[in-house]
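Tokens as discussed.
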């Protein structure tokens, strides 16, 4: 564990010095220990040139585990030097499009590029149906290549979606292998009235390896369940929204013609079901984590907001180390 914390501090020194944190291919191929790679740090369905939609990877003894795969994450994987062909496990925190948009592309490209070992996709209710739909999306490509190229394997032999069955009172085991143990809790991204009207849920995930414990909040408002899941973890990767700035920005976007389908409902969702920056600090402090990584930033690159403003909002609640996430950072 001490070795892991030393690597965190070394990575933080690069962040604070402004050094680039791109991952050269040979570094990842030879990686040892547990490393966190941020692939997409933009909050909401708001991809742009600076920040892609939600996605992270945890590389454990050289094996990558992907957490969310919003639009642009597939490209970020290639930029990072981490091959999408090498990913055997994908974890979805919830099924909003900014967290799953690149899943059909990754499935299609893994099969097209000749992956022959299974890839499993884990997530809340609807994940199996989502994977089935992604396979259907790629069906014409499959039929053409099986005829023209003589492919032996059907994609359905390689890709399987798994719906995680949650326990409202305690974390549930999602998956365990020789390098990582993954547990999940239900968070508060969907309000109570929404939960009563639909089967869909939103997850937070904890990855425990021999060296480090890393928790991904996913999208959520303040959540005692997330605090309990993250208790004693080395790293909490937590979403963060600047509420006042996003409120003003939304009104500007609305005036320009965007968000015309029930804008009041959309704004309510944005402001009430995400984590205000101070609450990210509160959850990190209550959980006693070593490092808080702010992620899924709102407004992110939609409006110029200094990293220091995020840190200043966290600091009254969390005295520990804070990193404001950027695409292609490694920690």
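Sequence:
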């Amino acid at each position: 564990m001490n070795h892991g914390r030393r690597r965190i501090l070394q990575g933080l020194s690069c962040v604070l010095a402004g050094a680039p944190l791109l991952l050269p291919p040979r570094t990842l191929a030879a990686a040892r220990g547990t490393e966190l790679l941020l692939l997409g740090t933009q909050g909401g369905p708001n991809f742009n040139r600076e920040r892609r939609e939600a996605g992270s990877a945890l590389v454990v003894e050289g094996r990558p585990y992907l957490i969310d795969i919003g639009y642009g994450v597939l490209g970020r994987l290639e930029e990072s030097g981490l091959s999408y062909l090498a990913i055997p496990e994908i974890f979805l925190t919830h099924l909003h499009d900014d967290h799953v948009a690149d899943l059909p592309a990754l499935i299609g490209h893994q099969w097209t590029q000749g992956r022959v070992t299974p890839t499993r996709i884990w997530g809340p209710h609807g994940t199996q149906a989502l994977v089935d739909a992604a396979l259907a999306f790629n069906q014409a490509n499959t039929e053409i290549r099986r005829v023209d190229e003589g492919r032996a394997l059907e994609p359905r032999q390689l890709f399987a979606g798994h719906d995680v069955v949650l326990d409202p009172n305690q974390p549930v085991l999602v998956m365990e292998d020789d390098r990582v143990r993954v547990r999940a809790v239900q968070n508060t991204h969907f309000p109570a009235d929404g939960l009563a009207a639909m089967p869909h849920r939103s997850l937070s995930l904890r990855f425990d390896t021999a060296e480090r414990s890393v928790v991904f909040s996913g999208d959520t408002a303040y959540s005692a369940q997330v605090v309990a899941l993250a208790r004693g973890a080395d790293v909490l990767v937590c979403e963060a929204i600047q509420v006042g700035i996003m409120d003003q920005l939304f009104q500007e976007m609305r005036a320009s013609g965007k968000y015309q389908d029930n804008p009041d409902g959309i704004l309510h969702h944005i402001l009430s079901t995400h984590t205000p920056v101070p609450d990210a600090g509160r959850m990190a402090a209550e959980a006693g984590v070593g490092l808080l990584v702010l992620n899924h930033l709102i407004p992110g690159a939609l409006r110029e907001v200094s990293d220091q403003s995020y840190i200043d909002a966290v600091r009254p609640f969390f005295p520990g180390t804070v990193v404001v996430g950027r695409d292609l950072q490694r920690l």
